[in-house]
């Protein structure tokens, strides 16, 4: 079984001193490829270094909505430079987070729109975080025709799902699908086969039976099994489907 972790954070402090070991455990579990997602330019630079050192690791470059206040000419120049690196396969993580509001909402919106424009300029897909900002996220998806994107770690509503699917975007599910209180089974089933991705979002959101502990790419097998069960598919078929989709989305085919 071959798996692709479409969204993780191997540059996070939780993996300090243990990145090579985490990648080894991932490979043993069948996770042969992954994208380590950046939260700011410094994080992206580290992700690029990691990708250069380890086959099967790819990187993104962007500003997380929590860091949106860092957007400016210098940050945009750094991002454009990083997005030109061959190891970088996506713009982001960007989007809107109106739950924590670590950055003012207007600033988050400006940053999100700038990232969508970067995706258009570079012809790279964009990785989008949306929390308690569904209408605003959907509006910006609709205002960016031709931009390819993914709604990562999806826990949103049917309306946001449909906005993404209508734009031709992908939808990615994390270990949340294994949680006892997960109520989005119908939405997992509504994503077309060719638009489905799975991820760990590690070191966060460890799936059952490891919930509450540090997550890592090797644990993608649990999310894969849960999504497969919800869709009435075999784990092996779901693994191959989502691996193929991830390679297509990130332009690796």
What does this structure look like?
The chain is 41% helix and 17% strand. The chain contains 9 helices and 8 strands. The chain has an 8-stranded parallel beta sheet. α2 packs parallel to α3 and α5 packs parallel to α6. The longest helix is centred in the middle third of the chain and has 18 residues, at 105-122.
What keyword list fits this structure?
253 residues; alpha/beta; eight-stranded parallel beta sheet; 9 helices; globular
Question: On the 0-100 scale, what is the average pLDDT?
Answer: 98
| Strand line-up of the largest beta sheet | 1-2-3-4-5-6-7-8
- Rg, nearest Å: 17 Å
Beta-strand content estimate: 15-25%
> What fraction, in percent, of the residue positions are helical?
40-55%
Q: End-to-end distance, in Å?
A: 18 Å
SSE pattern, N- to C-terminal: EHEHEHEHEHEHEHEHH
Coarse shape: globular
User: Using DSSP, what is the number of strands?
Assistant: 8
**Spans of at least 5 consecutive residues with low confidence:** none
The number of helices is 9
State the secondary-structure class. Answer: alpha/beta
The main pleated sheet reads as: 8 strands, parallel
Describe the structure concisely for a colleague.
The chain is of the alpha/beta class. The protein contains 9 helices and 8 strands.
Secondary-structure map:
Elements: E1 3-8, H1 19-29, E2 31-36, H2 41-53, E3 57-61, H3 73-83, E4 88-97, H4 105-122, E5 126-131, H5 134-142, E6 149-151, H6 158-166, E7 170-173, H7 185-190, E8 196-198, H8 220-231, H9 235-249
Parallel strand pairs: 1-2, 2-3, 3-4, 4-5, 5-6, 6-7, 7-8
